Amino acid sequence: MIKLYGIRNCDTVKKAQKWLDEHRIEYQFHDFKKDGLSSAL
Predict the structure, then answer these.
(1) pLDDT in tens, 15-40
(2) Whole-angstrom Cα distance, residue 25 to residue 4?
(3) Using CA atoms, how far apart are residues 28 and 14, in angstroms rounded to an integer?
(4) N or C: which terminus of the chain has fewer CB atoms within 10 Å of its end residue's CB?
(5) What DSSP state is assigned to residue 11?
(6) Is-catalytic flag, 10?
(7) Does any domain span residue 8?
């Protein structure tokens, strides 16, 4: 599964999500603002 990293209200992220949805590609979204980011990641 693809993991998409970004900020939910970013236009580029929205375009990527739309493209993935249109092509029925499963993905998991990781929101930097909401979920943060560990140093290991």
Answers:
(1) 999 999 999 999 999 999 888 877 77
(2) 12
(3) 13
(4) N
(5) H
(6) yes
(7) yes
Rg (CA), the chain: 11
In this structure, are residues 26 and 13 in contact, taking their beta carbons and an 8 Å threshold? no
- 24: alpha, beta or left? (left if phi > 0; alpha if psi -120 to 50): left
pTM comes to: 0.77
Catalytic residue among 4, 7, 10, 25: 10
The tokens for 18 are 């739309």
Residue labelled with tokens 């900020």: 7
C-alpha span between 32 and 4 (Å, rounded)? 10
Alpha-carbon gap, residue 38 to 19, rounded angstroms: 27
Residue 31 belongs to some domain of the structure: yes
